[in-house]
Design goal:
By secondary structure, the chain is of the alpha+beta class. It contains 13 helices and 21 strands. Helix 2 runs parallel beside helix 3. The N terminus is likely disordered.
């Protein structure tokens, strides 16, 4: 399950530069070495439960999964080796690590793995992770140290999904059958990870302490403190003041703190503080609704793809901290990534709109059968980045005769309108082609929660995706994905935009082992330069 060579190059090119001398530094207040690391976040975690999405993509503070994401690859965590599949990839077998203890003192075994995955699949639990396990029919322990996953159809990529944190079977037995929102794990995590909860006063300051009985050895960073500070500028200043050691910042903040032309490294304000950049699989796209008289037409959807200046969005709104993409197989799916489909060509976009019968009226807005070419682009109202993308895209669509507007809404108001209005959508998982291409466009998932929000359906696309996952032959997989990409080119369900990069401020304080990682869409405070903090040394 090696991840893409392309992703490896991107990740390893991220500069984690050592602090250097700077005669112009006005702030160099680094505190004396301490075994405590302090992280600032915009808001406290809503839950500490892995089945609710916390640490479900392979980062480990409280929990370990069978696998974990490590830099540019998946590697065993609670598994002793990567999962193995039978000939048709319908049965996956995992050997688990012996001698592991949960933070409550109970022993880890195969029953805990079975209980965790059964709970994820329980409809009453309403776990957001359940859709990632589509096709999983049965999980069984075939011994104290072996677990088998049986699928209802072949899936050569199923093993990549085994990153969710494992919980004790005793907790699952006591709580299964009720919604995860009522679980004790939301506030009191019990896992096999390197840290355990020390305190969470008023659900704000989250304090973790290192475990001396962790199977990976006692972490040298013995105490983690996570403090919620809503204001981005305030958190950044706290890093410069040495009251925090790290925080996520916006691309605009990152660009303002670096010398012109730099993407990462020591800041101009204080050489002891670095800007760190992690590229991601977190994809941004405009979902195009199938119940809209404008976007129901494939010609119009192709035109919209030609009307959007993707690289302009990267360079402008995102300050260079993103990678432009135009199809459902971006760099983060590795060897299955596909080539570009749509150049920025507003003239060709206008021609396609003419061909579709949408002709420009005297005011420049296109009309067909007496109906104006209107399109509302929704975005979550608390996401300023998606807001800014939507506003620029509206201007670009106006240039080809589309009367577009934005609408910032809460998710409960967005959801019922997704089949009729466009949406700046986001998602993506490292190394898994199905995570975007299938989950976002499969006919069977149309309108299922936030899967396939625009209700796109092309049976030929689905069949190509099924052929790809039904074989372990890389050549057949690649041919199937290439076919799916060409089907998408003729009948696009989205305007894909980019995969974002995440930007952080970090005060290393002499810690060694700070490594980059290719992040996914799911993003908790445990992501960032400190994703592998349990292995840092000094």
């Amino acid at each position: 399950m090696r991840l893409p060579k392309r992703a490896c190059v991107v990740s390893l090119s991220i500069l984690l530069l050592a602090a250097c001398e700077s005669s112009g530094s006005s702030h160099n207040t680094s505190s004396a070495p301490t075994d405590t690391f302090r992280i600032g976040t915009a808001a406290p975690p809503s839950s500490l439960n892995p089945l609710m999405g916390h640490e479900s993509e392979g980062t480990t503070w409280f929990y370990d999964g069978l696998l974990r994401l490590a830099g540019d690859k998946l590697e065993p965590a609670l598994a002793t080796a990567l999962p193995t599949a039978n000939a048709d990839a319908t049965v996956w077998t995992v050997k688990i690590r012996p001698g592991v203890v949960f933070s409550d003192g109970s022993q880890f075994d195969a029953d805990d793995v079975v209980a965790t995955y059964h709970w994820v699949l329980d409809p009453a639990a309403a776990s957001p992770w359940a859709t990632e396990l589509t096709g999983l029919a049965e999980v069984t322990a075939t011994g104290d140290d072996t677990v088998q996953f049986r699928l209802d159809s072949p899936n050569a990529f199923f093993g990549d999904r085994l990153t969710v944190g494992i919980i004790p079977s005793e907790v699952a037995a006591a709580e299964q059958g009720k919604p995860l929102t009522e679980s004790s794990l939301n506030d009191n995590p019990v896992g096999t990870g390197p840290y355990q909860l020390d305190s969470w006063a008023d659900r704000n300051d989250l304090v973790l302490k290192a475990r001396t009985d962790w199977w990976g050895g006692t972490p040298q960073v013995t105490r983690l403190v996570v403090t919620a500070v809503p204001n981005d500028a305030t958190r950044a200043q706290m890093v410069f003041d040495a009251t925090l050691d790290g925080t996520q910042i916006s691309p605009a903040q990152a660009a303002s703190l670096l010398p012109t032309g730099s993407r990462a490294g020591a800041t101009t304000k204080d050489a002891a503080v670095q800007v760190v950049v992690h590229d991601t699989a977190d994809t941004r796209a405009i979902s195009l609704p199938m119940d809209n008289p404008l976007t129901v037409d494939p010609l119009v959807r192709r035109a919209l793809n030609l009307a959007v200046d993707r690289q302009g969005l990267v360079d402008g709104v995102l300050k260079g901290y993103a990678i432009a993409v135009d199809n459902p197989f971006p760099h983060s799916v590795g060897e299955h990534a596909q080539g570009a489909l749509f150049s920025y060509d507003p003239d060709e976009a206008r021609q396609l709109l003419d061909q579709a019968g949408w002709l420009a009226a005297s005011d420049g807005v296109r009309v067909k059968d007496g109906q104006r070419a209107t399109l509302t682009i929704m975005y979550p109202s608390d996401d300023t980045e998606r807001r800014d993308l939507a506003q620029v895209i509206v201007d670009q669509l106006t240039q080809v005769g589309i009367e577009a507007k934005t609408d910032g809404l809460s998710w409960d108001l967005i959801e019922p309108r997704m089949s009729t209005d466009a949406l700046i959508f986001a998602g993506g998982t490292v190394g898994n082609p199905d995570a975007t291409a299938w989950n976002w466009m499969a006919c069977e998932l149309a309108g299922e929660g936030f899967n396939n929000p625009g209700h796109y359906c092309n049976p030929e696309f689905d069949q190509a995706m099924i052929r790809a996952r039904s074989t372990t032959d890389p050549a057949i997989q690649q041919a199937a994905y290439a076919e799916a990409n060409q089907i998408f080119a003729a009948d696009p369900g989205y305007v894909f935009l980019n995969t974002i990069s995440r930007t952080y401020l970090l005060r290393p304080n002499g810690w060694q082992g700070i490594e980059p990682v290719l992040e996914g869409h799911v993003h908790s405070v445990s992501w960032g330069p400190w994703w592998d903090i349990a292995h840092w040394t000094r």
